[in-house]
Target: Fumarylacetoacetate hydrolase family protein
Amino acid sequence: MDAAPPSSTEAPSDPRFAALLGRPGKIIAIHLSYASRADQRGRRPQHPSYFFKPSSSVAASGSTIERPAGTELLAFEGEIALVIGAPARRVPLAAAWSHVAAVTAANDFGLYDLRANDKGSNVRSKGRDGYTPIGPALIDARAVDPTALHLRTWRNGELVQDDTSAGMIFPLAQLVADLSQHFTLEPGDVILTGTPSGSSVAVPGDVIEVEVSVDGGPTTGRLVTSVVQSEDGFDPELGSLPAADDLQRTEAWGSPEAVPVVERGSAATETERAEDASGVSSRFARSTTEAGGSAAAESALSTALRAKLEAAPVAGLSAQLRKRGLNNVHIDGVSPLRPAAQNGAPLNGAAKLVGTARTLRFVPNREDLFASHGGGYNAQKRAFDAVGEGEVLVIEARGETGSGTLGDVLAIRAHARGAAGIVTDGGVRDAAAVAAVGIPVYSTGVHPAVLGRKHVPWDADIAVACGGATVLPGDVVVGDADGVIVIPRAIAEEVADAALAQEDEDAWIAARVAEGHPVDGLFPMNAEWRARFDADRAGEESR
Model:
């Protein structure tokens, strides 16, 4: 049965559906259908799989789409849309195309920040109002070869997607026939047929255009959508909140290499985006800690506090933290990287380490995950590009020493960025070269192997577990020959002052012991010795 051709007299009064035969009863979208997209994702499906989008998500050409507050990964996907013209139920492949009335352009927008919440159904990530622009004009399906449709997408005038239906894994007619095996396709229903490579992230201010055409023949015209920022976000008491990780960023942007260094989410400005594209800006925006504390940039140490921490020994700081009930703040098993001596002097020794934490997490190697996360501009490289002046990059490697977690190139990058040091509960490769860089590095040992032997670089600027200690971005990290300790930023000054006061007292006690006094009653001081100590200090202050 041939589908009825598109007719302008059938256009509905609702402007959202002006390019269609009416309000669609169903919108069915395919997850992955183009060979170029499958190759980009590193997986090719054996059969098509689908999800539904509500008709309330339809928008007309010239509309705006909102990126909600608190999200960063609004992705566009230019697609060919099929409009069903005649009922289709269990139709054979040979007859399937005759049930299609028209072809048009569509943009299957989605928020990758919400994608994991629905595990493939895309209810929240792709079902929002305005997230399915369609139009602006229909092409009569009877007048076209379904294998010769040309799909193109532009972002801000730049062509970013350019493919044809001949590049699809599953032909258009197959999608119609397959879906008709499971339910009746009714007139007005829309099938979104997937997107080729080139799909990426749009930010407020972007204009996305999609066109479907037959080379030398009819065209839908350009479907135009402008991206704006919404002030509305999500209520944590009602449901799950948006979240972005390296996997979602990679898939939203299209590849690990495409993910920009700066990931500012809803706070991004057009100036910042331009900087990202040109490579001028090389910093991540600071992520807030999982405990709701300040971001790392907001907890930078003052010059005075840094000087106090540099003067205070780790052992003294540890004692003060214990007095405050904090016993699990030691990064166990790490020590300063000590290379072979040059001219009898160690290159790095036990250089004092003081800074605020930036974090990087590795997960155990799994071949498929390393394929998706290990190459390109992965989390490890982004973390070393992002660490800033006075910061310590703390790496969670699960105490696994059978592989290096950094080498000389990354150490040079951190040093060039002004980082205060690196702490890893994994190994270091190129150890002598890393030590020669001059940046303090604390590790569990050395190993010549690269990441892929034991680790997958996973994510950054989150809470990590390093050497048995939990480290949040913005925590204060201090290291010396006794080891490395983590201090909550809110009490760092108090702890440093107390540790220095105790050091002064301990030095006075040591001098008395050196004079021949027994330690009993002196260490710790009894009332008599305390009075002598206070008198000495008062005398010094009066001079």
